[in-house]
Amino acid sequence: MLKQNHFLVSILSSIAILFSSLSLAEEVNVYSYRQPFLVQPLFDKFTEATDIKVNVVFAKKGLSERLDREGRNSPADLVFTVDIGRLFEVADKNLTQAVKLKALDENIPDQYRDPEGHWFGLTTRTRSIFASKDRVDLKNIQNYEDMSKPVWKGRICSRSGKHPYNLALFASMIANNGLKETKTWLKGVKANLAQKPQGNDRSQVKAIKEGVCDISLGNNYYFGNMLMDKEQRAWADAVNIVFPNQGNRGTHVNISGMALTKHAPNKKSAEKLMVFLSEQLAQEIYSEQNFEYPVNPKVKPSELVSSWGEFKADKLSLAEIAKLRKQAAQLVDEVAFDD
Question: 113 — phi, psi (to 5°)?
Answer without folding.
Answer: -145, 155
